[in-house]
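Cross-check.
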Amino acid sequence: MDLSNLGMEHTNAWVDLPYAGPDFDLDSWTTEETARIAERYAAEGQRADTRRIARTLRAITKDSATRGTLGAFALYLSGFDTTLALVELDAILPDETAPEVTPRWVADLMATDEVAPPQIAYMDLPLGSAVRIRQNHYAGKKRLFRPRPVLRALVYGVQPKNEKGLIRLVCSWEDFALDEVLIPMVDEMAESLTL
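Predicted model, tokenized:
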């Protein structure tokens, strides 16, 4: 599967995260991107805590780079000085361990009922057949005197027409109050995927 033209549309509230390899100047990029976020916030009538934005932006970029994604995007909405959600794109190609990868295979692999039963739907998107999984699961280790945080997730596995591999889009966030705003945004992003 040729991934050189993989594309996805998104609003300017999403920051395209670079691959922060060993030769990448993460500090310079973080400074420039934080200034762009602060300018956008100011245009929308909000102040930005640039130190906090830079700290969270640097951390999420480093963390995402460890997973070797094809693309990663962090959500920064004005009025919030932290990453609210993360979208990551990757490709799953058939191999010895999974000779056939399909939307149903993604559902079997990724769906979890750890917190509650997942919502699984199969559909056709412009790019190809897909599965959409909306679920919650526990994140991290149990905290002393506090429950484990619940991570909310929306996962798409899209099989482009006439291809044997899949494009996987995973969005994760913690604040349930974002559901109404975020889920339609991610649905639109999945519909806009091109190869």
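Residues 88-191 form one domain. The chain has a mean pLDDT of 92. Passed to J.P. for a second look.
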